[in-house]
Amino acid sequence: MTQVNGANSPVNTDYVHHDASTPQVEKALAVTDAHDETDKEFKDPLAPTYLKTKKFFCWRLTKRRWIAAVAGSVIVSLGVLLIILWFAVAVPLFQHNADKVHLSLNYMDIVHVEKGADVRTLGTNMSVRFEHHLSIGARSDPTTVTLLYEDKPFGTVEFPELHLKTGKQEYDLVITSDLIVSDADVFAQLSEAIITQKNLTIDAHTKLKAHALGLSKGGLKFDRTLALTGMNNYVDPPNVIERMTMNSCSSSALDITINATVTNTAQLGLQGIGALNLTLYFSEDYLGYGVAMVPELGVPRGQSTQMFHIFIDATGSHLAAVQKMVKGIASGAVQFFMRGDNPYVTDVGLLQEPIKVLNMSFPYADQLDRITFTSECSLSTLVGLL
């Protein structure tokens, strides 16, 4: 018995205190470690593994997926930004520069056309004047231009590749291209207007594909209205008969060669249409017909010297008109008219109908001064027809 606080208290002598570093404790810890190693060795490989996650908006992603999501978001954002910039800046910039290109037609010459009623291709040379003031240089691809008259398409021409320089530019470009007539009726209306009117307009429509600043843009609207000067039926300036040669004259017919200065004020030249076969009138009286003697000349732009071989029927009802003509020449008051109102006016099918409205006036007021007589037709022979 042990005395505690002066009293005798029983003490359990079976309890023995062991220090933490005793061999018994170390043995117990060793058993625990071995148990943990055994658990790791026999752990189920299919058991879920819990990894650290990061928040991406309202989702929690693993580190690898989070990085991929961030990178993808950046790429998508850049793509959307580029699309916005393209439609908000690049496309308007291309169209703005296209709108700043002004063009006008200097002239168009028909230089070649096959004979035949069904021919729809005309070989042309045209001169177009360009004016523009661009902030960036650009190049446009070749394109097909649709031509319209009174809002109705009548044909197409090919436009070449263009190189547009920066700054203020003014220059002329000569283009050789075939005019493909798609609507013969509309083309005939246009041709009649060119022959009879002083001024008219046509429209040119196309879509351009341009390249600038390393970028390309197609479908650019390029519509222009082109002003044209017409022939006005050769009214102003008037045609001038330079010389009339009386090749032969009899009671049945007269053969005359007329040299005349003709001025085509139009911006359209008809060099490639061959010889014109025109009907000849004295005032309103039918006399015969006249054939152009220089087929390759055609009807060019500007002033030209035309030679016509005139055949006059002096028989029957035509004799009265011939007598009026002879009296008119003697008095110095002659007015010839050459018209396209016959079916043989030209071999170009596309122009047969339009040229019917052609009415060329040839005044003559010089009496006998510009008339050359020959052995086959003297003055006395001519007077004998009266």
What is the annotated CATH architecture of the largest domain?
A: Sandwich
Question: How many structural units, i.e. domains?
Answer: 3
Annotation, overall tally of beta strands: 22
Low-confidence runs: 1-18
Beginning-to-end CA distance, first to last residue:
187 Å
Taking all residues together, what is the mean pLDDT? 81
Q: Whole-number radius of gyration?
A: 49 Å
Computed structural class? alpha+beta
Describe the global form.
rod-shaped
How would you sum up the major sheet?
10 strands, mixed
| H and E order | EEHEEHEEEEEEEHEEEEEEEEHEHEEH
User: How many DSSP H or I helices?
Assistant: 6
Please indicate the percent range of residues in DSSP E strands (runs of 2 or more).
Answer: 35-45%
CATH class of the largest domain: Mainly Beta
Annotated CATH topology of the largest domain: Immunoglobulin-like
Relative helix content:
10-25%
Summarize the helices and strands and which ones pair or pack.
Layout: E1 2-4, E2 7-9, H1 23-41, E3 53-56, E4 59-62, H2 63-99, E5 102-113, E6 121-134, E7 138-140, E8 143-149, E9 152-159, E10 162-164, E11 167-181, H3 184-196, E12 199-212, E13 215-229, E14 240-249, E15 253-264, E16 268-270, E17 277-282, E18 285-292, E19 302-313, H4 319-331, E20 334-339, H5 349-352, E21 359-364, E22 371-373, H6 379-383
Parallel strand pairs: 5-16, 14-22
Antiparallel strand pairs: 1-2, 3-4, 5-6, 6-11, 7-10, 7-12, 8-9, 8-12, 9-11, 12-13, 14-15, 15-19, 17-18, 17-20, 18-19, 20-21
